[in-house]
Design a protein that fits this description.
single chain; alpha/beta; 8-stranded mixed beta sheet; 6-stranded mixed beta sheet; 13 helices; 14 strands; globular; binds 1-O-phosphono-alpha-D-ribofuranose; binds manganese (II) ion; isomerase; metal-binding; Metalloenzyme
């Protein structure tokens, strides 16, 4: 039994999903296109990385084999394969809930690609209850671009910026001190109530600091207000059985704080890796450590920054030996992702892709597991490993 650790590299898809065409994502391949860009010398970042992508530890575990790529001749040292998503959306909650055994088989509500994007009645309700005198934005946008465009006006008028994407989200950007962080969280809680009837997955607080369009920066105080998963997930199976669930980074928010024992936050992937090791050091037998590494998605995938994404992968890879050294004989670790976000693809949205499944531990025998039909096989395997009641979806590959 010992412990289980799930590491989600947020947005690290490894190839076009069989149903990608329905999402307008045919040909998307986050890993494959980063590899190619690095090889072509198009992903050099001054002082941070250059040349071909070097991921020796992920390669050793079987990343290339999982992606069906012939570049590596190494025999995988992990249980290796890939998984398709059956959830209707390619968003973060859908991906994580499916990993935890609860695919999203209903349709989220989405806001149209029009301006305004939000129903006027909805905005009127949020403005009335939220104590603001109006909003800016009201459209589909990239979060960094929209604060550059409207941040100064937002600071001057006190009106927060409302925007959305191809995900089921209402995002609210406001200045951390001029508008106020707690006030922004309160406003998001009001918005959360009003978007519930529209079946919107998340309201996201996007605080920023700085004084001019050029210096505005989003802070680590982002907060996601998610709806709870529609059924009990692996996390609740664990906590109901008296186990502790250690949630690293965004995990607690993504699961609307259901089935979480403790939350450890960190600013950036490296801090999140530190928190993961810290949780592992404290986890008892039977516990689950569940970590999300958000930089891949937020800082590089959505920003279509190939070099940054490559550098972040290499930095993550360099830390894997520390994780392996901290694992006890009966532990299981699974490296996976929640969707793709190909930094070479058009637009700035997620991409429908298959994700890697690399499961390893001192007593886990390497083997191929092929292409799994659903991410839920990960949750089923973790449940089996921790001797928890089986999740209602997924089959264990262990
Ligand atoms: O452009 P930013 O604000 O990073 O937004 C991105 O972050 C949202 C939540 O992950 C996604 O829906 C995407 O729109
Ligand atoms: Mn995600
Ligand atoms: Mn994202």
């Amino acid at each position: 039994m010992a412990r289980a650790i799930i590491l989600v590299l947020d947005s690290f898809g490894i190839g076009t999903a069989p149903d990608a065409e329905a999402f307008g994502d045919d040909g998307a391949d986050t890993f494959g296109h980063i590899l190619a860009a690095c090889l072509a010398g198009e992903a050099d970042v001054d002082g941070r990385r250059e040349g071909p992508l070097r991921l020796p530890n992920l390669e050793r575990l079987g990343l290339f084999a999982a992606a069906g790529r012939g570049e590596s001749r190494m025999r995988p040292q992990a249980v290796w394969g890939s998984a398709c998503e059956i959830s209707h959306g390619k968003d973060t909650p859908s991906g994580h809930w499916e990993i935890a055994g609860v695919p999203v088989l209903f349709d989220w509500g989405y806001f149209p690609r029009t301006e305004p994007a939000f129903p006027p009645e909805l905005i009127r309700q949020i403005v009335d209850d939220g104590g603001i005198d109006g909003i800016l934005g009201d459209k589909h946008a990239s979060g960094t671009e929209v604060i550059r465009e409207l941040g100064e006006e937002s600071v001057a008028t006190g009106r927060p910026i409302f925007y959305t994407s191809s995900d089921s989200v209402l995002q609210i950007a406001a200045h951390e001190t001029h508008f106020g962080l707690e006030r922004l969280y309160d406003l998001c809680a009001v918005a959360r109530r009003h978007v519930d009837p529209l079946n919107i997955g998340r309201v996201i607080a996007r605080p920023f600091t700085g004084e001019t369009a050029e210096t505005f920066t989003r802070t680590a105080n982002r907060r996601d207000f998610s709806v709870p998963p529609p059924q009990a997930t692996l996390l609740e199976s664990a906590t109901r059985a008296g186990r502790s669930v250690h949630a690293i980074g965004k995990i607690a928010d993504i699961f609307a704080h259901r089935g979480i024992t403790r939350t450890l936050k960190g600013d950036g992937n490296m801090a999140l890796f530190d928190r993961t090791l810290e949780a592992l050091g404290q986890a008892a037998d039977g516990d689950l450590v569940f970590a999300n590494f958000v930089d891949f998605d937020m800082l590089y995938g959505h920003r279509r920054d190939v070099g940054g994404y490559a550098a972040a992968l290499e930095a993550f890879d360099r830390r894997l030996p520390e994780l392996q050294a901290a694992m006890r004989p009966g532990d299981l670790a699974v490296v996976t992702a929640d969707h793709g976000c190909d930094p070479t693809f058009r637009g700035s949205d997620h991409t429908r892709e298959v994700v890697p499944v690399l499961a390893f531990g001192p007593a886990i025998e390497p083997k191929p597991i092929g292409r799994r039909e659903t991410f839920a096989d990960i949750g089923a395997s973790v449940a089996a490993h921790l001797s928890l009641e089986a999740t209602s979806n997924g089959r264990s590959f262990l």
